[in-house]
Design brief:
This protein has 207 residues and is of the alpha/beta class. It is 34% helix and 18% strand.
């Protein structure tokens, strides 16, 4: 019996290796410890072969967060293309990627830093992708919204958003007026919500 098994499954039996006495199965906490130990086993060989391919390959480089998300480094990259996911986008182009209302699902990560860098990098662009709808308690809701719910955190301000992409097309926002932004974003919203969004745009923004 290996020492690893002895640590995770409890003390060794006092029986000799040649004893015919059956080995006791781990119980309770011991069984849970064994299960956790099994979950820590190495992943498939395909996973390790991927890492072996990357290791030392001149096309790959690994850096810490302080380098990869440092705006002063990113702005030097020509044609920097920052592609990020979003939860909601309002009709002015504000992006919410951390939560909806008071419900927070994640942090900003490097999203804001990359959007800022894309605005200043030569040829840079910031692209935000999202499905046009989601479901809340079974009801279909638009992810392109007239206005963000109260308490919703704005992850990226509208001035840093160049493109918004859904399955219905691409909204090009850079340099656009508010009226033009509203039109671009409604065009990529789900067709079932476009009339409602137009009505809300007239009410909120008079466009």
């Amino acid at each position: 019996m290996s020492s690893a098994w002895a640590v995770t499954a409890g003390p060794l039996s006092s029986a000799s290796p040649t004893s015919s006495r059956p080995r006791e199965r781990p119980r309770g906490r011991q069984r849970r410890r064994v299960a956790r130990r099994r979950r820590r086993r190495p992943r498939s060989s395909a996973h390790w072969s991927d890492l072996a391919f990357i290791d030392g390959h001149p096309a790959f480089a690994l850096y810490g967060f302080g380098t990869t998300d440092d705006v002063t480094h990113l702005v030097r990259e020509r044609n920097l293309t920052a592609v990020n996911n979003a939860l909601l986008v309002d009709l002015t182009g504000q992006v919410a990627s951390e939560g909806i209302g008071s419900s927070i699902w994640s942090g900003a990560g490097g999203q804001t830093a990359f959007a800022i860098a894309a605005a200043y990098a030569p040829g840079g662009r910031a692209i935000f992708v999202l499905p046009s709808t989601h479901r809340v308690k079974g009801a279909l809701r638009s992810r392109i919204v007239a206005a963000l719910e109260p308490a919703t955190v704005v992850t990226v301000p509208r001035g840093l958003v160049d493109y918004v992409v859904t399955e219905h097309g691409i909204a090009r926002l850079r340099g656009k007026t508010l009226r033009e932004r509203v039109g671009e974003l409604i065009a990529v919203a789900h067709p079932d919500f476009r009339a409602e969004l137009r009505a809300e745009a007239r009410r909120l923004h008079h466009v």
